[in-house]
Amino acid sequence: MAKNLMFVGTSSSAGKSLMATAFCRIFNNDSFKVMPFKSQNMALNSFITKDGKEMGRAQVVQAEAARVEPRVEMNPILLKPTSHMGSQVIIMGKVHSNKMAVDYYKMKPGLRKTVMNAYNALERECDLIIIEGAGSPAEINLKHDDFVNMGLAEMTDSPVILVADIDRGGVFASIYGTIMLLEQSERERIKGFIINKFRGDVELLKPGIQMIEEKVNKPCLGVVPFMDIRIDDEDSVTERFARKTAGQITISVIKLPYISNFTDFTPFEIMDDLRLQYIDRPSQLKGTDLIIIPGSKNTIEDMSFLIESGLDAAIKKTYDSGIPVIGICGGFQILGKSIKDQYNVESSISQIKGLGLLDVNTVMAQRKTTRQFTGKVIKSIAGLGIVENTCIKGYEIHMGETASSESEVIKSQEGAYDGASNKQGTVFGTYVHGFFDNDAVRYDIVNSLRAKKGLDAQDKSLDFLKVKEEQYDKLAENVKKSVDYDKIIKIMGE
Q1: Catalytic residue set
Q2: Which pTM does this prediction carry?
Q3: What span, in angstroms and rounded, lies between the C-alpha atoms of 263 and 235?
Q4: Least CB-packed of 281, 385, 418, 467 within 10 Å?
């Protein structure tokens, strides 16, 4: 049987996902075959596996760090919020239903077998399983039928490390409060804690560490410094929306209420002389060189947001001034003339007008399209500098089907069209997530924007996949030297 280790956090975004990712790479570097596992994810960032199944992005990142192929057993249950009270429930990579929260919790007892079957399938094929919890293990209102935090630790007989975020303050209170709210048997599974996102002199922290160790009777296993690591985030509890970057080229991503797969824009963050900003007010469009409308889990509600906020008029006005616009997935639908949801798949609103920047119309289907995409640009998108025959790889996740009378500009190897632009190539939409991961496309777009401003073109030397690998190695190196690695190995039972 594979050894295992579970990371839980004092709160969302404490760093449990990052620590899990780091240890996937650390142990893989030490010649172990590692698999990540998270029984239930609630996130709008997802990915499509080679066999066309949908899973949470966090476990894809961890699989990449572990150098293994992502598969849905790593994340058997995915919840994608469609409203403040409900989510689309995805089980083993396939849509099960849309459920209100109270109805989903009635389902939970029957899902324990699904969770353990997925875990056992991984266990048969690896040396180590790195498990990630969800939210906080001390959410005492959710402990009944828990299979995501300490309940999962018991089901898998896993030792647990608690991760606490010192950057937001109250780190000792959060460690103490989390542990003290657990049952005695659960506390015994907590083998120690890691303090994450530390800035400053660690010597000043040591008296506090000694006192909290005595109070909770658990060792501090490390103090990890604040790191600027550019890897994909799990969900919208992210620091990237407020991250400030600088550059002569500004790309504005519309921060939709139901924004999904904002990981599409990570590749821009690693480029020089480029400012990527997430905006939700019309005034923030001033000075932008490119507008991107991202994916959405509730396209009609997000279109309503654009109308109510005045962003719809601001986007059109900015486009009329000569600024190009790109839409990805739900953003592609928003660019069109209309969006219909006659079966109320995503929204209680059955129809809404889009921005009308592309002559396309979308109808929501009852069946979700999930597939990986390999193809090429079949017609140059002149206004964005994208040239004919450029190869494209990515993946599709969408409920809608979009009919176009515009120029269809992308075609898959199987002969399916995916993407349309206007004649000038200044408005472009596609269902392909990961579109900007393609280095040639990304550089073509940025250099066309630079040319409009009289700036020199950037050479196309930056390989995004190579940069990702470097980031995983950087993360692993920084974490390993900041923790008591030998003690963690002993916790896992050698």
Answers
A1: 329, 433
A2: 0.91
A3: 9
A4: 281
Distance between CA atoms of residues 132 and 75, nearest Å = 10
CB 10 within 8 A of CB 174: yes
Rounded to an integer, what distance in angstroms lies between the CA atom of residue 127 and that of residue 186? Answer: 25
288-307 per-position pLDDT tens digit: 999 999 999 999 999 999 99
Alpha carbons 145 and 264: distance in angstroms, whole number:
35
* DSSP code string of 106-150: HHGGGGHHHHHHHHHHHHTT-SEEEEE--S-TT-GGG-TT--SSH
Domain 249-454 has CATH 3.40.50.880: yes
Quote the radius of gyration of the chain (alpha carbons, Å): 23
At the second CATH level, the architecture of 3-231+469-491 is 3-Layer(aba) Sandwich (3.40)
Taking each helix axis from N to C end, the angle separating 57-66 and 464-480, rounded to the nearest 10 degrees, works out to: 80
Q: What is the C-alpha to C-alpha distance for residues 416 and 371, in angstroms, rounded to an integer? A: 12
Rounded to whole angstroms, the Cα distance separating 447 from 451 reads: 6
Question: DSSP state, 206?
Answer: H
